């Protein structure tokens, strides 16, 4: 059927699998086997056939069907989370099949993604005038509430919208103002607890936008970790123990790893941002910070940041797939600087611009 089945009613799974396969291909430049390409085609066709009709006169016209989705958003509904993942899956498939010289299927996926994007935008506009907040609700039939956390997927991890998209930033701002308990994101539907992994979703959106409040959310997640450095899926705000789901939540652990990695290197479509999430306090400790080699869509990169008395030095070495990407140095409390070169050194003085050699 082409359905990557997790549990019935979770319509995000196909988009997630297809996006992850392309992400793996981007980072490794490995060729997909014929069997995997067949699964990719079938998975994308399933998304194309699962959408509701564009012709119905409803706010969910053209969206994915109502379902339980990621299970932390509430009861069955037409969740934008499913739609954003489906768009990403279709676009990823279009890229993979274009590389496999399957131009017809690739174009069909691009056209289907465009139709779904148009359906999302149309749906968002239908009730926009009735909403008191410009953010993204969880579904066309929901007001702004904690379920809006799912709509952040359009910014992180999918990057379908720019980092400074007003609706994306309005959504994370709503969550910051209305959905934090003891500084962490509290999901009051289904989970009824503080979610480390969803707190980190908010932190990633803020980091990408250059909003320093990501550090506050990271610190909260650190403070709520167990003695073994793990988190339950949902944390009871009083007992600090688990109150729902996994006792040792792998998703949360993975989000923490990705968060730390993105503090060193963030990927945008045409640039790598280095040091954007490294607080000045980390540099002043006097230790050398290291990350890598870590894979990116441009290739592998190793990064070091070292205290230099009145500043810091950031060094990077890349093993790129093609030409070296543009690199932007964005250490805390310094003006950004853009440069290029496979390897480089940037000497950073506190409170001044970045001086670089590449």
In terms of DSSP E residues, the strand content is 15-25%
Number of strands: 14
Radius of gyration: 21 Å
Largest sheet: 5 strands, antiparallel
Question: What's the helix count?
Answer: 9
Estimate the global geometry from the Cα principal axes.
Answer: globular
Q: What is the share of helical residues?
A: 25-40%
H-E string: HHHHHEEEHHEEHEEHEEEEEEE
Major sheet strand order: 8-9-10-13-14
The poorly predicted ranges are none
Summarize the structure.
The chain has helices at 13-28, 34-50, 80-99, 103-126, 166-178, 196-208, 214-223, 250-264, 280-284; strands spanning 180-181, 184-187, 193-194, 234-235, 242-244, 265-268, 271-274, 288-296, 299-307, 311-320, 326-329, 337-340, 343-349, 354-357. With 358 residues, the chain is of the alpha+beta class.
Task: Please describe what this structure looks like.
The structure is a single chain. This protein is α+β, with helices and mostly antiparallel strands and 358 residues long. It folds into three domains: 1-131, no CATH class; 144-263, no CATH class; 270-357, no CATH class. It is 37% helix and 19% strand. The strands form four sheets. A five-stranded antiparallel sheet has the order 8-9-10-13-14. It has a four-stranded mixed sheet with strand order 6-7-11-12. Helix 1 packs antiparallel against helix 2 (34-50), helix 3 (80-99) runs antiparallel to helix 4 and helix 6 runs parallel beside helix 8. The longest helix has 24 residues, at 103-126. The radius of gyration is 21 Å and the shape is globular.
